[in-house]
Amino acid sequence: MSNLQRKVLGGGAAGAALPMAAPRLSAPGVLPPTAPPTGRRRPGSFRRRSYSPVSWKKYWETKEQLKGEDGVFTVYSRGSGDTLVLLLHGGGYSGLTWSLVGDELFRMAECRIAAIDLRGHGETSASVDDMSLQTLSKDVRCVADQLVDSGNHKSLVLVGHSLGGAVAVSVAKEGGVAGLVVIDVVEGTALESLNHMQGFLRSRPQQFRSVSHAIEWCVRSGQARNIESAKVSMPGQIKDKHGRLVSSCIDDLISSPQKDQIIESATRLTPEPPPDSIKEEDEETGTEKPRETEEQNNSESAPAGNGPFTWAIDLSTTEPYWSGWFADLTANFLAAPSAKLLMLAGVDRLDKDMMVGQMQGKFQMLVLPQVGHAIQEDSPDKVAEAIANFIVRNRLAASKDSNIVVPKIPLRP
């Protein structure tokens, strides 16, 4: 027994002994209530994650329908300012893929932020008989002109991811665009990946049992690594059995009597071992059991199967246009008369001409680590910060963030 224990039980020199009180009963035979839980999860307990969808209204102020030459285009927007930042999504996504980026950018720079549903995507209603780059570019120019005129904006900045990046470059090449931001698309890499695109599309589940299962698949498969982004983005990529885009009727689905069938609770995951636990040994061999890899867990637990929810657009039918989307992308990007920023998930995506152009200072480049192809969903805060820095430093917008300042010398190439 230690000296401290003796003092506590037997009394110290100063007579500061603690009395050994018996447990107090709040009623005959009833122990007093226990202390409230601390909020810490017991080691080995099961984790439950919510995959419930989120409405677009959480991130955007307005949703409007703008008429084009042969269709009606859906545009989400928020904020105000002299500059319009128009966000263009990639193939299969919708304008909602930019929800978290728009939310962050709104806090960083004085500008109007808008995200369009491209032809054949989201809530936009337009013929998909022609999905060529020329048609998509004409659509974006038409919508951008309407937004600039209605908002009296002085400058236009285009931000495009993947297919949206190719469309942004095509529009910017013709002039009238003050800033151009292209996210994770380079001509050489894009054309090479087309050989595997049909296989990738076939590997995806074609139907989902519920909206929550679609979101869960999105996160576990790695399409989006940010669950908050997946909750608002995935409803813009799937439709119900009546052909309605889920994001367009998400409020009705949440209040529906069949909510439990439409939005299911999260599945139970494997319990997490405590940090100081010892690896389990195989009873027969006495060796440590190898842990399952993340890919194995994803393939086994990612939900799929039959269900009333399907993809909003069948990308496989657009194959005749794939090569045309990315042809001459490098030359057009370098020739565009705009301030330019290229964001990539890895430097290995750069081809020779882009490497030369970057060394010559023809554009700014930023590589974000630990992200997938959907950079804007995986790391929306970093993407928003990069865009804010880009437009503020090129004097296209005023800063709302003290960490984003205008340099003495403009960075525009």
Task: Explain what you see.
The chain contains 16 helices and 14 strands. The radius of gyration is 27 Å and the shape is globular. Residues 7-39 and 265-305 have low confidence and may be disordered. A hairpin with a 3-residue loop joins β1 and β2. The protein is 32% helix and 15% strand. The strands form three sheets. Strands 1, 2, 3, 5, 6, 7, 8, 12 and 13 form a nine-stranded mixed beta sheet that branches. It has a three-stranded antiparallel beta sheet with strand order 9-11-10. It is of the alpha/beta class and 413 residues long. It has helices at residues 3-10, 99-106, 133-151, 163-173, 187-193, 197-203, 211-221, 227-233, 250-254, 259-262, 294-301, 322-326, 329-335, 352-359, 375-378, 380-393, and strands at 62-67, 71-79, 83-88, 109-110, 112-116, 125-126, 155-161, 179-183, 207-208, 238-239, 309-311, 339-344, 364-367, 398-399. α2 packs across α16, α3 (133-151) packs across α4 and α4 (163-173) packs across α13. It has a domain at 56-193 and 329-399: Rossmann fold, CATH 3.40.50.
